[in-house]
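Hi C.,

You asked whether I'd gotten around to modeling the 583-residue construct. I have! Everything is below, sequence then structure, no commentary in between.
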Amino acid sequence: MSNWFAELRRRRVFRTLVAYAIAAFAVLQIIEPIMHGAHWPEIVLSYVVAGLAAGFPIVIALAWVFDIRGGRIERTAPVAGATGPRGARLGLLLVGIGVLAAAPGLIWYFLLRSQTRIVGRRGAEPTEAAERKSIAVLPFVNIGGDKENDYFSDGITEELINALANVDGLRVVSRTAVFALKGRNLDVGQIGAQLKVGTLLEGSVRRDGNALRITAQLIKVDDGFHLWSRTYDRKMKNVFAVEDEIARSIAQSLQRTLVRSEGVKPPTASIEAHDLYLKGRYFWNKRNLEAFRKAADFFEQAIHEDPGYALAYTGLADAIALRMDYDVVPASEIAPKARAAAVKALEIDPGLAEAHCSLGNIALHEFDWKTGEREVRRAIELRADYATAHQWLAETLGETGRLREARDEIALALKADPTAPIIVAVAGELEWFGRNFAAAHDHYRRALEMEPTFEVAHYLTMLTWFAQGRPAEAAAELEKITSWPEASRLSARGVIDAQAGRRQEALHAAREIAERANRGYVPPSLEAVIWIALGEKDKAFPLLLKGCALRDGGMVNVKADPFYDGIRSDPRWRELMRCMNLE
């Protein structure tokens, strides 16, 4: 046998084997990036690996039979008197050596590599099939050069999210979650891990007058492969058809069918109305007073273009209703207009979850807690993954003292939309209601890490500093809030001055607000909170009762807010709770 191994060395079989293994490895290093660039399927690489493995016994057989001498291929002459396997036994032995040489690579590729990829996909436990059932539509990029068209590319993204929500068995990440990643330099794996999805849809929009080009591509998160890509050149009059076509193409790629056999029904037939609606949502999502006014104007224009456009009415209801949280306007002026728009939306489309949610929000600000909860729960029935509905229900439960249920509900909202600053902030507010100030502060810090200019989180952080007896830090947070009306800022400064021992400054703020109230509407709670901070309950309670009668939006948290702990033992507290339908 030793002579036979010597013969293998003489015929340079081992040297040839090593050279072939190096060449095979080089081929794999070259073929894999080519596959990614050409969007070839994974099976191509498997065929290449199998082919290279099959080459091992062939190369060994050729090395045994032939040799290269003087640049010519010659048959290798046997050594006289050599012993060892011959004939069929020799052939089988050579093949066996080739199989043994190829075995480590085959075992690694087809067994170890596949298992590693399944188990180690950035900590993901679901199988590939399960991951493929989830998708995030990343904000489409406006490449037309005109920044004024950003609203349109954002709107296309939102419409595709809504369209894919109708794909049976497909989990679609919410708009808030994907837009939170806009402008961040993250790779495919990081985005997939953060949003917990198996596929990403990304693309670009170029708009030139009525000419429209939309490019979209579907990417598999675990390996970066492109599952599908396409470019659509259309006229603006066909924008709805393009959205439907993209949604159908993706659905086919994911091997799913649309819930509705007729496909995604366009919300309006008017291109102009659709364009105005997208502009309205673009501004509404900025969440400040000036943006709300612009949003309402665009929604009204959309309704003028198409009076049957249900989503535009819902947008108008939201743009009006949220002013109760951000502005100093009476609910009697705001609520009827917002309700009329939401009701009209439901007349057009009774199954529109957004409209039910809007009605619920309006009712809650009128202290009609039962109606508000019922409408928001109806929205969740219509769209179980509707993060905003879960968020507003959590707020309702927290404000009415059902803190345990509220925490369960905000957990559902976070699961549906883990990257929305407002939901993270509300999770902190529930901890604030529970007197867990450190936990609340942590949530607000997380929200500000997501969006440093998010004023809701700055306001809530200000409250936690105040609760901890740190007026200087509270004042610093107040300075970061720039969009509030002057009366609201004056009230907050008065409360901070009262805690800091600057009584005269706090009294001046309270009197200034009272004078403003004599000239026009000012929410009574803005003055009342200063008197509470000053320990003047007799001056605070009449204002709170007046605020209750006027449905002062600043009082929705009164039952749960720790700020009011100092006046709860007063007999007038029960009267206030009865007025607010909380007892």
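If it helps when you're writing up: The radius of gyration is 34 Å.

Thanks,
B.
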